[in-house]
């Protein structure tokens, strides 16, 4: 077979040879794109995105839109393609000093220009614009100073709302919604912010009954995200004034009981596949870890359990009537923090790194043993090496919490008997109020209906009729697309 014949074997047939085609005129434009990537640099950056970035973006999406479906559609959409390439190049520059951030910035600027130009067209593809903004949002949060580059962080949220996406959405709408609120939640956990998009407005089905069907782990993951968001809002609403906190303690305790029972109910009803496949005590592990080895099989199950144990750690810290030094709360905090550390210490799936980092940061604050503290720092360093994320501040904050910065010299390893005494000693009380930050959630009030909306000089409201047509395509057109689309028309909605 000749080289040309080999190439032709990968190419789709001439669209004129197909008798069935999608009636949407935009499909004719799709045919103008390449059938596959041929540029060496683009191939590399797309591979990096799919294998390293897309995997965690899809951690709550059963259909894996970002890593398995959208890259094919990007072949026909320069805006989407450049967003993918920017994120892949950004990741590569973070983990490998041989690669410059300049290449990532080039693709980022191209994708941004495409998006801003599209936002001035009332007949634009609103789904494409929102999806591109979500990916550019991911690009922006990869750096340590993400809040200083807010070009698309707020824009992605506004475009998602413009599309009407929420927990009831399906397809790419659901993928973008859950990725977006998931990233916001992780930031709120760190900065002690209120979640800007009220969880009660998400539209999620929270009828918690014992699971009888298989393959619905992602649904239960979405449900624990909702519960953690509720706990996050409860924590952020704790009065800073001590007298006000005392006066509202009983009322807040009733809410605390409700949230705790909600989380317990979730853990009772989830399918067996979301519980550990195996559990080894620290002395049984081959790794010699200070923490138990907790083996969970599916990525969504790992993410869900990390969120669940994080939820229980937070609840143990913010009981309005008992502090974390009380026997009951101390046991609750210790148990769940150990499980978070155990999952994070032994997990091999890099697709859970974003949740593992935030959960580990919260769980590790109560550790008192030096060897356990050092192992946590090692885990954070491992994640930093693999992802390139600038998360050195986590180690700094943990060292400060543990009191390392107040010691002139690092203490030597305690003898076994003393280690046991330290492990049994009450954990220091954790005061969530100290985690307060003066800055409010930057996503609060983000909406194109507000005067200070994103993309100020570029945004023009979309044509209502066009949006309705795209909604119909997304809701009812998937099956017909599979039946009628020519071979080179990728299903997007």
Question: What do you see in this structure?
Answer:
Its main location: nucleus. It is found in: Nucleus. It holds the Pfam family Fungal_trans_2. The structure is a single chain. The chain is mainly α. It has a domain of 231 residues. It contains 19 helices and two strands. Helix 3 crosses helix 5. The two termini are 37 Å apart. The C terminus is likely disordered.
Number of distinct helices: 19
| Succession of helices and strands | HHHHHHHHHHHHEEHHHHHHH
Low-confidence stretches: 9-31, 408-412, 417-438, 477-493
Please provide the count of β strands: 2
> In this structure, how is the largest beta sheet organized?
2 strands, antiparallel
- Assembly annotation: single chain
What's the pLDDT, averaged over the residues?
84
Shape verdict: globular
What structural class results from the helix and strand content?
mainly alpha
Helical proportion, percent range: 55-70%
- In whole angstroms, the N-to-C terminal distance is 37 Å
**What share of residues are in beta strands?**
under 5%
Specify Rg, calculated over alpha carbons.
Answer: 24 Å
Q: What is the strand arrangement across the widest sheet?
A: 1-2
